[in-house]
Amino acid sequence: MLQVQLEVGADPAEVGRARRWARSRLIGSGLEDDEPLAETLILLISELVTNAVVHTGCPAVLRMLFGTAGPAGSPGSTGTVRVEVADTSTRPPQPRHAEGEDTGGRGLELVDGLADRWGWQPEGAGKRIWCEVDRGGPVMVPAIQEQPGDRARL
To answer: Which pTM was predicted?
Structure first.
């Protein structure tokens, strides 16, 4: 198992840095940059890091753990990518349900819909929230629904 990690500051601008770092590590693990699994993982990472930074105001540690995988297309080409974000807040994650025009409250719903498994647990003086995506399994690409007014007027 390969594990890589990044310390993330308590600044919302750190979310973009975490995405760029994660993308480079995914490519190093053998995933293609434009592969649907890579895009799904980047979205999951973005949501979990955003939750840690915005909702706790604490620094965090992003970890990615890559399970072993056989050659692509072989019977053993399975494995799991696990994403963990640990922070120093003891407050558990609070799933919310966004309504209509709400600009927040969809993060954990996305994680629940895209990850094969997810959860959280206490870690030291804080907590760790994690999700797992199985390699070699079906990948869901999120559909983006257009809202009225989203389309540029010519």
So the answer is: 0.77
